[in-house]
Amino acid sequence: MRPDPTPPASPTALPGYAATGRIDELRATEYRHLDTDGQVYLDYAGAGVAARAQVRAHHDRLLAGLYSNPHSENPTSVAAGSLVESARRAVLDFFRADPDEYAVIFTPNASGACRLVGEAYDFGRAAPLVLTWDNHNSVNGIREYARSARASVRYVPLNGPELRVAESALVAALDAGRRSLARRWGRPGLFAYPAQSNFSGVQHPLGWVELAHQRGYDVLLDAAAYAPTNRLDLSVVRPDFVCLSWYKLFGYPTGVGALLARRSALARLRRPWFAGGTIRAVSVQGDWHRPMDDESAFEDGTLNFLSIPDVDFGLRWLDSIGVDLVHARVGLLTEWLLERLATLRHDTGGPLVQVYGPTTGAGRGGTLTFNLRHPDGTLFDERLVAREAAAAGFSLRTGCFCNPGAAEGAFGMSRTSMRQRLLAGVDTIDQYLAALGLPTGGAVRVSFGLASIATDAERFVDFVQSTYLNRDVGADAPLPPRLRC
């Protein structure tokens, strides 16, 4: 945090902001559609935004050539296959991954990448699953595969108001029961965690990859929230599995993600089924099949061959702007917004904003999660904030963001209160919250990204201040029921 406790009136006054001016130029040209009808986009953690150049490139490619199923052998299929392989090389180049060490498997999204690992990993009594509380549900769901294999599942809790993980707690979880089992069977386990929290913006140490490797674990790194604004160099940090969604990085295409996997780890996976495109040969009468011996063994059916080439263009587009430049801009906006929100106090002296996670720019990304408080300290319902923000033209996120562990840590939920037997007969999210005694069902999340500018942050602060400062509890219109978390 800057030594001056009073943040400047605009992020543009921050040291270093002018050096990120290229993004303002791009916003006025390639991303000018973001400013249509006075909208303000603050949900980059949910999805990035596409540049006009990306849309043009897709359009021009489809009109200039003819492409067909890469599984065929004809000129149009060869053309499609060539573009898919070019995209694979682009992914490896962007993440500085050695093609002899890493393979790129195209998936529908990061969730699909997580599922591929979960369903095929050789879990067992000697091969546990260790996870941090702070994980997206697509990573949490891997525990169902582990439990079905009778593997131990261990969670590492969050510590303190910044919602970080104590490394000592992680080491204890990794070491629990490992030494005798490893000597007996020599099998690894799997440690899964996010490089950046999609709830709090906390950036967990990439050094944990080597820490887990030293204890015999494979590592799944969820980079979906991290990669859009941070450089991930796989020549330095070498997780066994990396899960990504491309629309999070640059908005388009949707429906395409990737699993980057070390070839040595990939060779240990055993898929529970096969599909078209994943096998070299199969017999119905003989009841046998032989999988492909490369990454295509994990790509079910026909790839999205008309959109995967857009990944190649998107990575080159992001590289031309510079991930470091995006990182700098997002960091400046995040720190300014945190400082500015901290200055908002009711006439009673109480704070308007309660942030969950780090309250400075250190060790965090551009995702801020918080709740708003009335002058008497009670919380504004996040559904009310969602409704009023939408009416004012803001695109943001409310809820718990598919990250229940971070939410449980933020809201101080105890393990006892979360016992399933205590929630018997609870059918709806609102009943669930009532049973837990929670004042609200989640929080408000805003996030910055590639095309964010100072005006986005300034307008949001003005909205929060003018709408909620010194606003007492009132009789608001009925709110819709919560449908999911």
Task: Report what the structure shows.
The chain has 485 residues and is an alpha/beta fold. 35% of the residues lie in helices and 14% in strands. The strands form 4 sheets. It has a 7-stranded mixed beta sheet with strand order 2-8-7-6-5-3-4, sandwiched between helices. A 4-stranded antiparallel beta sheet has the order 11-12-15-14, with helices on one face. α9 links the parallel β5 and β6. The model has no long low-confidence stretch (mean pLDDT 93).
Labels describing this entry:
15 strands; 485 residues; alpha/beta; single chain; 7-stranded mixed β-sheet; 14% strand; 35% helix; 17 helices
CA(first)-CA(last) distance: 33 Å
Give the number of DSSP strands: 15
Number of discrete helical segments: 17
Largest sheet properties: 7 strands, mixed
Please indicate the percent range of residues in DSSP E strands (runs of 2 or more).
5-15%
| Fraction in helix | 25-40%
- Order of strands in the sheet with the most strands? 2-8-7-6-5-3-4
Class inferred from helices and paired strands: alpha/beta
Radius of gyration: 24 Å
User: Would you tell me the overall average pLDDT?
Assistant: 93
Shape: globular
Low-confidence stretches: none
